[in-house]
Design a protein that fits this description.
single chain, Alpha-Beta Plaits, 2 domains, about 50% helix
């Protein structure tokens, strides 16, 4: 009975640490779905801990599998009936397999999170080229491709938007716009509204 309880706790801990490891990238997608972009950067502070959380997930689930697969000694079986007792679903290898798969999907989330965002369309209308301007923003709080897509989506909603690129590794975004319809301050405000912070405009 003690081993069964341990396995349940290990499975739960594995799921929690896997979710926590990618929470900084899950939150922007949830914010987009909920229409509450201001919370997008809420968990960006977790990014430095991501490698440790991934490590914890691997260790916890590895130990859970070890506990599940190791042969049981005679003195570990409480009674003869326990061997023939039908296991609950949460005590099976199938359940642990599902938990492990879910953890892997969560850990990999930063690498495929961009698929949840609508494609940012470039404005191909014939524009007065003399009114087209490009600005480079230095942004604090971006941690993955999900953050990049959130920034691009936010500025694409502004009138006069033409094109945008973002790079979370360098913490930058380049936005091209029609300055007769919008301006740098409005674009910066749109970015700041997501929860990420513009720290420099060039």
């Amino acid at each position: 009975m003690k081993t069964k309880t341990i396995n349940k706790k290990l499975a739960g801990a594995g799921i929690l640490s896997a979710i926590a490891a990618s929470l900084c990238c899950i939150t922007p997608v949830l914010a987009l779905i909920a229409g509450s972009s201001g919370i997008a950067a809420s968990f960006s502070w977790l990014e430095p801990a991501r490698p440790y959380l991934i490590g914890i997930t691997i260790v916890v689930l590895g130990f859970a599998w070890y506990q599940k697969l190791k042969p049981r000694k005679v003195n570990e079986i409480e009674c003869d009936c326990e061997e023939n007792e039908k296991m609950h679903f949460m005590q099976t290898k199938l359940f642990l397999g599902i938990v492990t798969l879910f953890a892997v999907v969560m850990l990999a989330f930063p690498y495929y999170s961009a698929v949840f965002y609508p494609e940012t369309k470039v404005n191909n209308e014939v524009l007065n080229k003399s009114l087209i301007q490009t600005v480079d923003f230095k942004i604090e709080g971006m941690t993955c491709t999900s953050c990049e897509e959130h920034i691009k989506y936010a500025v694409s909603q502004e009138e006069g938007f033409v094109e945008a690129e973002a790079d979370y590794k360098n913490g930058t975004a380049k936005v091209t716009f029609d300055n007769s319809k919008t301006n740098i301050e409005k674009l910066a405000k749109a970015i700041n509204a997501t929860g990420y912070k513009v720290i420099r405009k060039e």
